[in-house]
Amino acid sequence: MTEEWDIIVAGGGSAGLAAALTAARGGARTLLIERQTKLGGMGTNALVHTFCGLFHPDSSAPWAWLNAGIPQEIGQAMMTQTGQAAPDLMGRVYVLRQHPSLYASIADDLCSAESNLTRQSGSEWTGLLQTSSGWQVTTHSRGVSQLHRSRALIDTTGDATGARWLSPELWTIAPPERLYRPAYVCSLPHVTGEHDEGWRLAMSALIFKGIRSKALPESAMGAAFRDSTFAQEMFMTIDLEAGQGQWDPFDPTKRAEVETTGRSTAMSLWRYLREHHADFQHCPPPQFPAQAGIRETARYIGDETLTGDELAANKRFENEIALAGWPMEKRENARGPKFRYFDQAQPAGIPAGCLKNSRYPGLFFAGRCLSADHEALASVRVMGTCMATGQAAAQLALKL
Fold it and tell me: 275 and 333: one domain?
């Protein structure tokens, strides 16, 4: 049986959620395909607990939304449900703490309100074919395959899945040693105390001591801590080397190694901190994510490719469809980020050509797999910007 749609969105992360909502609200009969059971991507399944890229980059001025529409709507809903009156100023940037469970709930509520939107969860996108009238997509779920046809297709999988089926000339990927490192994020309940910058410095020293004494694995060096919006809950993020030059995010064996290393490191830290730090004395075992947080895989090659130099120069475009404001947060190893800030505390533009390739009419791409070089991706991969490009991709699709 073949289902007919106006627009199909593959991938239900931040970009896919924004694309599907925009398409449905624009009157298109829309199908949203998601392999996990929750929408929100890294923000729900990998427990990434901050929305970055939602705000104007001038941190010397009062905070302001950067992209209107879905990004602001979701950001405001999160602020309301977490009781935050304003985002946090973190160094030179504004960030919004978000709670993964609330994000999943917000996504459900927004999608349920759209009669034109149909969601499939636990559904894998297994095939793609260009037709005379648009696109044919094959999905597979629990032993059942389905065919879907649409005039427009939006790939927000984060992996440029459609491009890898269509042509080797349509996608690119950084060398393994340069790929941004994955992270493993856990939730830690019942953590007491106050956690300021001095606390974090002392925590780093304690972890280093544990590594030197062999009480902790070396992978624990990539651990960082941030308070939740709710009392006595903390998120622990562990950046992982993932084999460095051997890291391949498309290799299921290497992905399993990353997941195993993340869990074992988290458990080692939990046991060590319960014994050596009073704030963790009553903390039960960490709550694991559904998956490790993947920062980079493959990207499309579009009509235009956004570069890091263009972002740094605050370049604007006549055909821009969204704004980028997050600095280039490069994580090519597990020793913390290296930031490249824009030359001025102003946004840069993202041109429409980064979301499409003229050789494939009706195909659009957004989020982490849009057309950008390795350095620019370090800025536009964050969830706030993904929402903005997902929204923009749907707006382009609606014009077909």
Answer: no
